[in-house]
Amino acid sequence: MPLSVIVKIWTFIVPLIWKLFKIAFSLDWVFTLFENPPKASAAAKKTLNVSEPRNFDSIPGPWPSLPIIGTQWLYMWFGPYQLHKLHFANEDKYAKYGAIVKEHYLWNYPIVHLYDKNDIEEVLKYPSKFPLRPALEAQCIYRKSHPERYKSVGLVNAQGLEWQNLRSKLISDLARPTIIEHTIKQTNIIADQFIDQVRCSIVKDSNTVPLFERLIYRFTLEGIVAIVLDQQLGSLRDEDSPMVEKLMLDTDKLFEVCHDTMYGLPLWKYFPSKAYNQLVECEDIIYDVFAGYVEQAMKKMPDYNSDLGHSILKRIVAAEGVDIRDKIATLIDIVSGGIDSTGNAIIFLLFNILSNERARTEVYREVDEVLSTGTLLTTEILQQMPYLKACVIESLRLSPVAPNVARLLEKDFVFQNYHVPAGTLVVCETGVVGWQEHHYENPRQFFPEGGMEGGRNKILFFPVPLGVGGGRCRGKGVADQEMRVVRAKLLQNFDIEFLEPLETIYKFLISPKGPVKVTVKDRF
């Protein structure tokens, strides 16, 4: 047996034996075992009105919490939940235990889930210079092992001053209205190519479009590369490109293995697990492909300091005080992160509109009234379609792609009259908030009118999936614009019907479980 394997086994076994020894000679786990019996769901949802906050250990939640594995048994093969259906598990926990729920992760590490709008608002709007978020540990370890490529663990995983430095110097411009408006021309070009590709993909006898979701992801890939890297891959013209197909598969797989390494048992820390090996493979391929495009783009702009214009690429490359490795990694993370997140949101948006007869009729009416054949969509024209904007917001509520936001508390809080100390990991279940009846009438129905002027489903604060406060997504405006442009052009050109309800799967993001089956008929 190789010495390296023996060392890994030894470093795993010794801490495990020590923890088992401490547990064996302590009765603490007996109390942990039964500390959170289920509460009646109706009573649990009521906020307690007493003067003295209850202690942290009395927060309701699943039980028993076992030694070492805590409540992780819930997500094992014999438990009631599945790791790839976490969005359903989180909703079920709210129904059983109420607006605050405590679980225990590996080594009985506590995690608190928040389901109350006011509590979530208090966390996400806390005035922190450096919001503390749990990092993707497996990805961090991989990146630290490749200093020739990565100066840091990247913007997504960085904390504190390092995070603030990368964020302020590299991506602050993404949210500027002038930048967002500038990208709409490129989005129109890519959307027109996408429409042509959909038209060519229609099977004449059945009017079906095989693997419709793959075309959507090709559009988001092509769009984000054009916007961020000032280049076109040609993925909508060359449907059989093995490089493009491999790239899409690996970006999708990366989300899946990040999910597995984060939520599953962390065996990858001690053994070369399948999930970690797949993460390494995906990271390598994505880096190799996109780094090549970044380097090509940089060679074309030797005097990038002279005229930055509205180019995202030029602004990132020209940023002072940032290592070139961080610039390349940030560009790669923006592109790879935007493919599935925006693609999933577009698929959910189309399904929600086209599966609702009222919304379907209204949206076709608005498109036909505002647009004419060959119209170049501008920000001014998009503003003339308020129903379209309302549909995007309502779809993000009903079908969130990112259903929660995690934070490490920087100070003590009181939630639902329970004391939660600083340093606790809290998960703000924003997706479940959007499904609560006391905020929305018929919350499981798609009702865009509710969010429009004078609508009935308006609440003062709703933490949409793209985030709020210091940790909000800087690409929100670009992604929103991309969704509205492609949806308008699709419905301007085609009558689309979904043949089956969408099944969803949780793999770090909520994604449609393909294949997505549709019929597409040309309107002209």
Question: Could you list some keywords that capture this structure?
Answer:
Cyt_P450, 524 residues, alpha+beta, Cytochrome p450, globular, two-stranded antiparallel sheet, single chain
Spans where pLDDT lies below 50 across 5 or more residues: 20-48, 465-470
User: Can you identify the CATH class of one domain?
Assistant: Mainly Alpha
Quick one: biggest sheet? 4 strands, mixed
CATH topology of one domain: Cytochrome p450
Strand content is: 5-15%
Q: Which class do the helix and strand fractions yield?
A: alpha+beta
Helix content: 40-55%
Number of strands: 10
Radius of gyration: 24 Å
> What general form does the structure show?
globular
Going by CATH, the homologous superfamily of one domain would be: Cytochrome P450
Label the CATH architecture of one domain: Orthogonal Bundle
**Continuous helix count:** 18
Mean pLDDT comes to: 85
Report the order of strands and helices.
HHHHEEHHHHHHHHHHHHEEEEHHEEEE
First-to-last CA distance: 68 Å
Placed side by side, the strands forming the largest sheet appear as 1-2-6-3
